[in-house]
Amino acid sequence: MGDRKVIVFDTTLRDGEQTPGVNFDKDSKYRIAKQLVSLGVDVIEAGFPAASNGNFEAVKHIAENIDDVVVAGLSRCVKSDIDKTYEALKNAKKSRIHLFIATSDIHLKYKLKISRDEALKMAVDSVKYASGKFDEIQFSAEDASRTDWDFLVKIFNEVVDAGAKIINIPDTVGYAVPKEFEKLVEYVKKHIHDKDNVTISVHCHNDLGMAVVNSLSALENGADQVEVTVCGIGERAGNASLEEVIMAINTRKDYFNLLHSINTREIFSTCKLVSELSGIDLQPNKAIVGANAFRHTAGIHQHGVINNKATYEIMRPEDIGITTDHISMGKLSGRNAFELKLKNMGYELSRDEMNLAFKKFKDVADNKKIVNDDEIKAIVDDVILNSKSIKEGEIWV
């Protein structure tokens, strides 16, 4: 059996926009959508058309101007939402409505104030009403990870029979742990009707810091589609991070045996664009794309990387679109790293000059976190100038 292809469903423009303080305008959404096409995602969830006029116009604009990708819109199981989503997506090259309703008892009782049977009827009626209006129908059982498994399977089978061919298992509040979540995916896959023609999706939140590992566990155990956001932005602690899921699959392809359509060389530029337009800076230690992700500070690490990058780098920075030098010069840096740095900066020093420059560098580094290129240049220029003065003095004598 060959490697399975993972469908990458990007919800940066919908769930990502639910990040507190983030508000993508129409132009920003379109810019991100175009970059997501370059990145190679399979589905773009462009927004929630019924949420506001701005959302509607942004989704409509993307649907009418973006090709080569499925454009999805979120909708509650309410006719007016479905109608609004249809109007937004009707000119898309390929459209998908993403219907959802909460299914856990705590949500049914305290949020929706309806019974399981009422939720089931709303879900089925909505799928039937949406049939014929969209190219694809996806149904999500909100808070699936806290839903009774038998009821979850029942509602999934009813909506599949009504016409939904993509079913989504969200860990809406980041409650699941990997072994538990993979068993849930296996259980749904085992009991779902028409399983050969139904796509199983997962959508994991990061409240306990397990969105990525839960997503990977689900994919490993039969999920076909993963819902992600660029940089992991989203409601509360965010979503599974696209770049982390994809690079885990790439780096450990020996383990996962999964394929995807992502052009990884577009990852860094995509993350930078989303960071810029969302106003959320990338934390320095952010996996894959943080400023420190490929930086090496300890002398032992730097020496290893200089000899063979694979000693401390399990990914190549250029594979995600990073081409800059990431040797971080500081008080823990060793002589090998310092000499390479000077060579890359165009300096050729004598042994005595190098000894003096390295000593001065260490003195400066003891009082700073990082010594930047300008400071290193100043150190070396001072050493060269002093060396030249001494030589000229010797000649004069």
Q: Can you tell me about this structure?
A:
By secondary structure, the protein is of the alpha/beta class. It has 15 helices and ten strands. An eight-stranded parallel barrel has the order 2-3-4-5-6-7-8-9, surrounded by eight helices. Strands 1-10 form a two-stranded parallel sheet. The radius of gyration is 26 Å and the shape is elongated. 43% of the residues are buried. Residues 390-397 have low confidence and may be disordered.
Question: What is this entry, summarized?
Answer:
The chain has 397 residues and is α/β, with parallel strands linked by helices. Helix content is 46%, strand content 13%.
- The chain-level mean pLDDT equals 91
The number of helical segments is 15
Structural class: alpha/beta
Q: Which radius of gyration do the C-alpha atoms yield?
A: 26 Å
Residue share in β-strands: 5-15%
Question: Main beta sheet: strand number and arrangement?
Answer: 8 strands, parallel, barrel
Oligomer category: single chain
Measured distance between first and last alpha carbons: 83 Å
- Global geometry: elongated
The low-confidence runs, each spanning 5 or more residues with pLDDT under 50, are 390-397
Number of β-strand runs: 10
Helix content: 40-55%
Order of helices and strands: EEHEHEHEHHEHEHEHEHHEHHHHH
User: Strand order across the biggest sheet?
Assistant: 2-3-4-5-6-7-8-9
